[in-house]
């Protein structure tokens, strides 16, 4: 299932072994070698650099960086959606029991109902709304990349990240060689971050040249969002002028999360980062980093990235949250022994919400 | 490489390879020093370097076509100035000369891009053809020196822009400017192009023009000084030594290795992160050096601006002792700027280096 990325010979590979550390700075040239590496090392998570190097297997300082794909990371956990509290599970650091956060607490302080320990970590079982919210951000990003930066659809690859979001890899030779600072400027552009009122026709001395809806780029989008449909424009323009510079600046800042694509800037500016290899499974979910294809709307990670087989397996499940995979609902489970398809078992085990059942006594030797 | 006509060469003399040009012109360097008719060109070259050293702006005008004689003077005085600078071997003069010539080039490129040709009949057909040729030439010069492709685009009412450059070329350079209007998000961007005025397009590549001129002077070996040129070369060297003493680079034993390293990075013309510049400046101020002594250390930085550097140094100097003291060894280590040697044992701040306070605790 794991395919070799473009220019594989110039990329750095790495992997994480089950319950073990990360191995980095590997190079390989063919898909065959890649499969051998994955099989021989009992790999849970496999990674590949967005960067190209002359010597991918040398330490970072000696790799001789040649360029990198332009990568954007969108994560549903950064979207602050109201549904999130309902599918976040806390896991006690002392006794290991999973439990739901008390009402309204979200991922904040909470004590374990079993042992009272205040220490816990959290994991989320993102719902349809989370997936839809992240897709909306991807769509905004793709629109700006296409319209403003003239990135061709065939140079953009959208992947489900394997856990809670999407990665957009842009392999466009115009941007391959640009540095980290330049990537930050592109990140701020697609996120609509740092815009000043003057660019949109509002100066401290007064308004002149407010944007028209038909204009290209951010001026056109701001015009549509702030100055409304044609019929309302004269009134909205009058009001904007009357409200003045400060109010305009505040409205512009308020537009940023809805107009801009909510991406993680640090991912875009890091030209040495390694990313989960498309086709490999995430140890955090048992789901694959999967290409979404052209039909992003129709892509369902809980169907299309759920690649583990459906053979029945026995687990002890403790999932206080219900979840859906491949069209079937599972849970909630309260520490019971259940028989579920292997993909559901893998999902729960990766989320820390299920364990393998105690081994039956070994049959007596004959 | 761009082939230029004589008139174009006069406007952009830095595009010529000076040795080859002078050779092809059929003159030896000695002749410029000895032949009374050619001597005028040598004097012009000396004056061109001196004017830059004195910080004089070039006189306005002079764009567009020059008469044959004036064009010859422009080209030769530039190329001979380059020869004199190589012979004098004073980087301080080269930097000032390159800066002044780059500003001149910037002005001409901008005018050519706008197709403004002072003194020409705008209505004449010949004038029109020439002007579009100049616009194209300016774009070609920028392209060949910097790789930035400037294209003419329709008028953008919102910004007054009539040119555009590819997004990647823009963002690779716009980081030099800290004003918010240079952020990509505050630019007209469509179809992969960033809209710019002629002034902004040239401003974007200013640093590269200056680097091109100074590196073309510094890269060639200094020829021996022929008879007749000792006079100007000697006068220029003496002027530089009197007015631009070499900066007091921290190289002596009293300076800690982190500070020496920071100074060396700058001297090589490499980029020193802000934290390193801060360390260097605060350390030297604390050691009693003046802003005027410290500023030249930053001259080779890729993003050097005399005005900004002086402003920042003055700012540090006035707050010295209250706000901006030299960062601690811990901090310097955390920034990856520490290159400790055994002599650093026992100090917690670079300013303690080599002082009594640096003696290891316990007097051992
Ligand atoms: Zn507990
Ligand atoms: Zn949700």
Topology (SSEs and partners):
The complex is a heterodimer of chains A (366) and B (364).
Chain A lengths: L12 E5 L4 E5 L4 H10 L2 E7 L1 E3 L11 E4 L1 E6 L12 E5 L5 E2 L20 E5 L3 H20 L8 E5 L4 E6 L2 H4 L3 H11 L11 E2 L2 E2 L9 H10 L6 H27 L5 H5 L4 E3 L13 E2 L9 H4 L7 E6 L5 E3 L2 E3 L5 E6 H9 L3 E2 L11
Antiparallel strand pairs in A: 1-2, 1-3, 3-14, 4-5, 6-11, 7-8, 7-9, 10-11, 10-15, 12-13, 16-19, 16-20, 17-18
Helix pairs in contact in A: 5-6
Chain B lengths: L5 H6 L6 H7 L4 H6 L1 H18 L14 H21 L2 H23 L11 H22 L4 E6 L4 E6 H8 L14 E2 L2 E4 L1 H7 L1 H14 L10 H14 L13 H11 L6 H13 L4 H4 L11 H14 L9 H6 L30
Antiparallel strand pairs in B: 1-2, 2-4, 3-4
Helix pairs in contact in B: 2-5, 4-5, 4-6, 4-11, 5-11, 6-7, 6-9, 6-10
Description of the structure:
The complex is a heterodimer of chains A (366) and B (364). Chain A has 366 residues and is α+β, with helices and mostly antiparallel strands. Chain A has helices spanning 31-40, 128-147, 173-176, 180-190, 217-226, 233-259, 265-269, 301-304, 342-350, and strands at residues 13-17, 22-26, 43-49, 51-53, 65-68, 70-75, 88-92, 98-99, 120-124, 156-160, 165-170, 202-203, 206-207, 274-276, 290-291, 312-317, 323-325, 328-330, 336-341, 354-355. In chain A, the strands form 7 sheets. A 4-stranded antiparallel sheet of chain A has the order 2-1-3-14, with helices on one face. In chain A, strands 6-11-10-15 form a 4-stranded antiparallel sheet. By secondary structure, chain B is mainly alpha-helical. Helices cover 53% and strands 5% of the residues of chain B. Chain B is built from 16 helices and 4 strands. Chain B has a 4-stranded antiparallel sheet with strand order 1-2-4-3. The radius of gyration of chain B is 24 Å and the shape is flat. Chain B starts with 5 loop residues before the first helix and ends in a 30-residue tail after the last helix. Residues 116-129 and 356-364 of chain B have low confidence and may be disordered. The chains are: A alpha+beta (366), B mainly alpha (364). Chain A binds chain B through residues 147-151, 174-175, 177-179, 181-183, 185-186, 188-189, 192-196, 198-199, 201, 209, 211, 215-219, and chain B through 157-158, 166-168, 171-172, 174-175, 180-181, 183-193. One zinc ion binds at residues 81, 83-84, 87, 126-127, 129-130 of chain A.
